[in-house]
Amino acid sequence: MSHRNLRGANLYGANLRHRNLRGANLRGANLRRADLTNADLEGADLRDADLQAAKLAVVNLRGSNLLNANLRGANLRDADLTDAVLPEAPVVEDLDLRIAEAVGEHGEHLNMSDWHCGTSHCRAGWAIELAGAAGKALELRLGPLAAGALIYYASTGHVPEFYESDEDAFADIKARAEGAQ
Predict the structure, then answer these.
(1) Pick from 124, 170, 112: which is nearest to 150 by CA?
(2) Has domain 1-86 been given CATH number 3.40.640.10?
């Protein structure tokens, strides 16, 4: 399927796992709720595509263009976003270290079951919170999942798992924070 012209195609809910869509023209395509896990979208044109609630975990998006794509609710865990054209996201220096400090010594302010819950947040929620007004604006535009992912990527070069237990998330945050020191 590489180099295909799928501009404006309706691929709602399509199973595109492990597919080769390298260089495909998917501009304006409806990929809402599509499963693109482990797909190869290197160099794909995804401008104006609807990727709402799409599964983009472990997908190759190297050099892809995602400008004006609807990423609300898209799961970008471990996606390769190297050289991708992405919506602008704020950078939070030493993000994992700052989250580790904010959640407390035992992770008491980390709640992976809710984006924002009083003084606790999940990992994506903390990224948004620590990015300040720019993070909140991105969240309003893209939703917490995509906003947290883009802030994490801009700040650290990776997108962590946002659907893990408090204990697993806290252990990973601490390990990455110690590596940053």
Answers:
(1) 124
(2) no
Taking the model in full, what pTM does it have? 0.90
How far apart (Å, rounded) are the C-alpha atoms in residues 56 and 59? 5
d(CA 83, CA 66): 11
Compute the distance between CA of residue 134 and CA of residue 24 in angstroms, rounded to an integer: 32
In this predicted model, what pLDDT tens digit does every residue of 98-156 receive, in sequence order? 999 999 999 999 999 988 888 899 999 999 999 999 999 999 999 999 999 999 999 99
Q: Strand, helix or coil at 110? A: strand
| pLDDT tens per residue, range 36-52 | 999 999 999 999 999 99
Compute how many other C-beta atoms are within 10 angstroms of the C-beta atom of residue 167: 11
Give the residue from 152, 138, 35, 16 showing the smallest Cα distance to 87.
Answer: 138
Give me the residue spans of the domains in the chain: 1-86, 95-180
Say how far apart CA 138 and CA 155 lie, in whole Å. Answer: 14
